[in-house]
Amino acid sequence: QVQLVESGGGSVQAGGSLRLSCAASGLPFSAYTMGWFRRAPGKQREFVAAISWSDRGNTYYTGPVKGRFTISRDNTRNTVYLQMNSLKPEDTAVYYCAAASSPQYTGTMAPDFGSWGQGTQVTVSS
User: Fold this and answer.
1) Among 97, 67, 94, 93, which Cα is nearest to 82's?
2) Is the distance from CB of 22 to CB of 80 less than 8 angstroms?
3) Distance between CA 91 and CA 82 in Å, rounded?
4) DSSP label at residue 104
């Protein structure tokens, strides 16, 4: 059974930084694309960032976070990270880690991610 456990959320002022971590178990981690999604109050879940399964670790970002957020992975620790800099109030949301449903899948569509963490709250005040 796949388990994803996020950590690192919290409250910061605008312009601050946070680093989210997601520890995975129950899957051959290096073979799976990993992603971060978020759900802001009153809004639908949206894609934030993804990193591919390949050794090259190709990365993908939604437009509003490009240049501010960085996704990375450590296949030796079965962990994916999301470094968030220059945070804005509009980044306030519950952030979810997700693993693709199929190995060697490369994409960013939420329905193609079959395993999800419990979420971690990020609150950015102005």
Assistant:
1) 97
2) yes
3) 13
4) T
Q: Which residues contact 42 (CB under 8 A, 6 or more apart)?
A: none
Q: Do the beta carbons of residue 45 and residue 111 sit within 8 Å?
A: no
Pairing state between β 93-100 and 113-116? antiparallel
pLDDT digits (tens, 9 = 90+) for 30-73: 999 999 999 999 999 999 999 998 767 799 999 999 999 999 99
Q: Are 126 and 14 in contact (CB under 8 A)?
A: yes
CA trace torsion 79, 84, 89, 92 (10° rounding): 0
Query: Beta partners for 28?
Result: none
Angle, CA 68 vertex, CA 9 and CA 77 arms, to 5°: 55
Question: What φ, ψ does residue 83 adopt, rounded to 5°?
Answer: -85, 120
